[in-house]
Amino acid sequence: MSTIILVEFILYFIGIIVIAYLTSRTKMSHSVFILGGKKLPGWALAFSERATGESAWLLLGFTGFVFATGLSGVWVAIGIAVGIIFAWLVLARKFRSEADKYNVLTLPDYLAVKFQAKANIIRWLVTVLIASFFMFYVGAQLAGAGKLFLTTFNMNETTGIIIATIVIMATAYFGGFLSVVWTDMIQSIMMLLTLVVLPIVALIYIGTNDLSISTSLANAGEGFDSWMGGVTGFAIGVLFFNNFSWFFGYLGGQPQLSARFMALKNDREAKQGITVAIIWTILAYTGAFLIGLAAIAMYQQGSFADVETVLPHMILNLTPSWIAGILLAGIMAAIITTANSQLMVVTSSVSEDIIHKTLGMKLTDKQLVTISRIVILAVGMISMIIALTSESLLYLVVSWAWAGVGGTLSPAILMTFFWKRYSSTGLIATVLSGFIFTVLWISTPLDGIITSRFSTFFIAAIFGIVFSLMFPDKEEKNI
User: Fold this and answer.
1) CA 32 → CA 101, 358, 362, 369, distances in Å?
2) How many other C-beta atoms are found inside a 10 Å radius of the C-beta of residue 391?
3) How far apart are CA 27 and CA 404, in angstroms?
């Protein structure tokens, strides 16, 4: 079985690297390398945005979370789905028009241009925020790759992490944003195939083997068969907000997602993207939730040393080898799409926001592209070292990065878009408070009570509001 699956994996890796190489033959100015040069259709950007937003966390982390918690895990899916739909319906067109209006390529540069009074400080702060958390985020994806190789081929996790690093760096290195989006699109379809096909196969298996999801939920443990986890009173609110709180990270604060909105050509392309993104989200999260529930019926609690390997185990147990290889490649696709997109975000922040804009280096397009490629290699290697030395779970690491970046920048984006009195000092206060409080919050037992995904958003928003009122900009910012 492993030989057939291994061959399919090799063909998959070769395929996406070839696609990345072919896209690199496009005339590669720095703006094309960083944001695609407005050359991409809306449907392709939507597939890419969804693949980027739903990483190994969805296929490995969320399915394992549902297996370990039961029905109450649905609030995570609902929170995320509502956030995604809100972002596409309300924010996508705004991002597109603002990027065109101010001729910017990155989220940090957009904020800096909007608040000229402290532009360079803003570029530095936002870049440091993004790079600090995203290197761990990429590391989490690489750790997920190690788990997949271990489960599938009984391969040493270190070897799996190194292989995944090479493929991820290659897809970003060759053609930048164009390579990432086109390979994302193919991999997004592969992810969706895994999340749609596997629950159908699992439910057929459960039905033909006289198993019962409802009975298994009742026997799995306290609260598994309750939509509120079996808690009452104040604890219901805590559980709801902790699970639903993924919503706040989707409100414009994830630069790897907002880049897709900024790359849209026009409103017609945005409408295409909205349709694709919403359908993809509903199918994917319904499938992932059903996979977690089906696993509860198929396996006893405690069957896995790591619950985040539930999905690959189910694939290997339920499907013939040639199908298993395709579905397992869907997991690898989730890992690669998110990791290379985040590599591009960090790269664009360093090359465009710091080297080009803040330091004001006079470089040609070719030199800027070369610098971007060097940054891709450097960040990829650092992330690989993080993956090799960290034992944190995918769910937790992604959760913290979601709070540190999404929970911090989402209120900043919302106030920039919709509140005229938001000031440059308020923006700086938002970023600093979000960064500091996320680190402090996850370092204490508080994160086990109220998640930093929830607390960071509101703390950063409050600091932004207070400091904007206390220190308004002397000249009204561009609107």
Assistant:
1) 18, 20, 18, 9
2) 5
3) 36
Distance CA 46, CA 382 (A): 29
* Tokens read off for 224: 């598994």
Q: Which domain holds residue 155?
A: 2-394
Does some domain include residue 428? no
Per-residue pLDDT tens for 211-238? 999 999 998 888 888 887 765 555 566 6
pTM: 0.84
The residue type at 227: W
Residue range 370-391, pLDDT digits in tens? 888 888 888 889 888 888 876 6
Query: Does 289 map to a domain?
Result: yes
CA distance 325 to 333: 12
The full DSSP string for 378-401 is HHHHHHHHHHHH----HHHHHHHH
**What's the rounded Cα separation, in Å, for the pair 424 and 102?**
17
Q: Give the domain CATH number at 232.
A: 1.20.1730.10
Q: Is residue 361 in some structural domain?
A: yes
Domains held by the chain: number: 1
Place of tokens 């600091």: 463
Residues ≥6 apart with Cβ < 8 Å to 465: 415, 426
Nearest-5° Cα angle at 138, 133 to 139: 95
